[in-house]
Amino acid sequence: NTEIGMTPIEIYRRRLENAQTLMLDCQIEAADYRNMKAKIDPEIDRLIRCQIKTSEKNPEEVKVIEFGLYYLCNMGKLFTTATLEQKYRMIGSTFPKKLVFEKGHVRTIGEDEVPTLLIKPDTDLRNKKTLGQNKSDPEYNRVIRIGFEPMTPSLEG
Fold first, then answer.
1. Per the confidence metrics, is the pTM higher than 0.70?
2. Residue 38 — very low, low, confident or very high, per pLDDT cuts 50/70/90?
3. Quick one: which of 157, 112, 156 has its CA closest to 138?
């Protein structure tokens, strides 16, 4: 079979060429060829559009991916040379929850938020924390995005 290893566009083009050859050899009527061509041409056009669409890359998306790879590969050096404000941003974007100090070590709370939201559907996540809040409450470690402690204006923006 000659169609093995061919792309769908190549297959449709080959079929169209075969139909044209049959018409030129008077094995099929010109009207039959036109009907076949009317069915095959739109399919070829659709496949070409799909191929072009999937091969195009958004230049902004490429820039973001390149920056992300650069950032990840050079995070240590970037943090070392960063200003205090840039360090706050880097830590805040890396650790979206408060850092917890236990026995001289730092750790983050790694709870999955989805079950928490399913268990407590009435909890308003935007409320400010109150003093004396229960430390076992999953919302206790949520950082309110208004700045850093001690309170400073938000660096996001």
1. no
2. very high
3. 112
